[in-house]
Amino acid sequence: MTHQPHTSRPESELLDLFEFSHVVNSSLDLSIILDTLLLTLMGKLLSAKAVVLLHEERTIFSVVNGKGIPKSFLKQKISLPRIRKKTIRVDKVFCEPLFTHGINRLFPIVSQDHVIGYFGVAEHSRRPIGTTERKFIETLISISATAIEKGFSFRTVKTINRSLDEKIQQLKTLFELAKEFGGILEQDKLLKLFSLTLMGQVGTSRYAICLKEGKSIYSKISGAYLETDKGLIFDLVQSPLLSSAIPRKKKYEVLREHLAKEKIIALIPLQMQNEVKGVLCLGERLRGGEYSESDLEFIFSLSNLAFVSLENSRLFIEEIEKKKLENELLIAREIQQGLLPRTLPEIAKFEISGINISSKQVGGDYYDVIPADNGTFIIAIGDVSGKGTPASLLMANVQATVHALVPFHLELPVATARINDLIYRNTGSDKFITFFWGALDPKTRKFQYVNAGHNHPLVLRANGSIERLSEGGLILGIMKTVMPYEEGSIVLKSGDSVIMFTDGVSEAMNVHGDDYTEERLEAFVKRQNGKTAHDILTGIKNEIQHFTHGAPQSDDITMVVFKAL
User: Fold this and answer.
1) How many helices (DSSP H) and strands (DSSP E) are in the chain?
2) At what angle do helices 9-25 and 30-45 cross, to 10 degrees?
3) If you write DSSP's letter for every residue of 240-303 in order, what string do you get?
């Protein structure tokens, strides 16, 4: 009979160690290495439960692999009271989570004199681990320590490479979106592209954009759009922030409740020139779970890219509107200048002079001197409420109506009533006109007038006294004529002057915000006695400009001065 050679136990264990070393060191896959270690040790110890803990930080370890334990226990963070390089017996005091799951013995995994983890096993009370078995286990763990460290490093490198691939893809996406955003000026299209990108790249379809000024410009989140919490949000969100990370302070309590109600998971600041101008509020992800740090970084870059494009779109639209307004003002200025007489007619035995100094804003000031075929001259001045083209167009209508009525030689009160009723029928209640006009007869030097709510013209008599021309009635356009307008009348003697003006004179404002006032005007006019009509008008103009020096002109300055020779 032939006898087979008998392999002794030490030789068998050496073969097992050699085979184990070959398996664990021939792989860089951490899962394969840990599975091999677990199955080998569990088979050797006849144990039904085992785990591998790897070191995270300080005394914190992560359960990275296990057999015979619930899946929920995997990837849990375990805090140990101390780190030892020797076998540790686990009880409830030492580590309750491990003890609860039946793990009662830890073997250290040491590499380069540092504990990188522990192998935990459920030791049978009836069959405790002997000295020989313990040494064999420690040898197996020692052999696997280097492989585990290499596998862990390889996994880290793979994670970093995967993260780099994601970053490269995100950069490509941002580059492509930058070109797309840069070529779109319509706000609706920009927001649609932004919405589709959020859904496709990030996986969210509910969001709101909350701006510092005005309401949210776009939203897929119902509710008040966080209007009441704006101040807190802009102070709080200086970088991407998860709602769960908002400080548990009383002042944020209402904000946290609102975010929870709207199911807002993350807040992303929208910045312009390093200042937070808005906040992007993100709802839940379609596939569940929280936003990762990488997600938040990508969304931050994406949303700020879109926000800059939205701001550029808004500025572009504002520039177009500004150009439209400038064109409108140019048209209005042309209309206004067209209303004013190019030259004033000569009036026998009278001097007459008129002026209109436009402010930056086009208004509705108007003056006119119209010769009538009966030898009289109609002298008019008016001021339409408001600015711009509407005011100029309304005053153009008034001018056309005045010119149309002059040949009919209607009494001034009757003609004024007709003008009033025409304006009342054809304009809104917010438009009205202060108006003064009169008929000057050079032969009799009689001046008959009607004042429809206008600044009372001043009559400077040759003896230095001042009178005011106030007879008339309501401002034009306020209501239909019920009470007839009253007519006033004066006779001008040699040296007497009449000064007609709009409120741009009396309400001219200096740098301190003070009005010039009619009282100042009256006092100044008294000092102009004896001067020509042109000199009186020029003197008032210079006086107003001196008073308002350094302050912007707030309204048109319009005056007509005529003097009996």
Assistant:
1) 13, 22
2) 160
3) -EEGGGS---GGGHHHHHHHHHHT--EEEEEEETTEEEEEEEE---TT-SPPPHHHHHHHHHHH
Do residues 296 and 350 both lie within one domain? no
Q: What is the DSSP string of 243-260?
A: GGGS---GGGHHHHHHHH
Coil/strand/helix, residue 509? strand
Look at residue 174 and tell me whether its pLDDT is greater than 70. Answer: no
Both 473 and 395 in a single domain? yes
Containing structural domain, residue 275: 183-315
User: What strand order describes the sheet that includes 466-468?
Assistant: 350-357, 557-564, 497-501, 458-460, 466-468
211 token code pair: 């701006």
Cα–Cα distances in angstroms (integers) from residue 256 to residues 208, 218, 235, 431, in the given order: 16, 22, 14, 50
* The two structure tokens encoding residue 290: 């929280």
Strand ranges, E, within 96-253 = 105-111, 114-121, 207-211, 218-219, 241-242
Count of the separate structural domains present in the chain: 3
Q: How far apart are CA 331 and CA 82, in angstroms?
A: 85
Structure tokens at 501: 């003006």
- Reported as a single tens digit per residue, the pLDDT across 408-436 is 999 999 999 999 999 998 887 778 899 99
Residue pointed to by tokens 């807040």:
267
Gyration radius (Cα) of the chain, Å = 46
Q: Round to whole Å and give the CA distance between 234 and 232.
A: 6
Residue 185, amino acid = L
Please name the residue ranges forming H helices in 527-560. 533-547
Query: Global pTM?
Result: 0.53
Domain boundary, last residue among 97, 121, 156: 156
Does 163 map to a domain? no
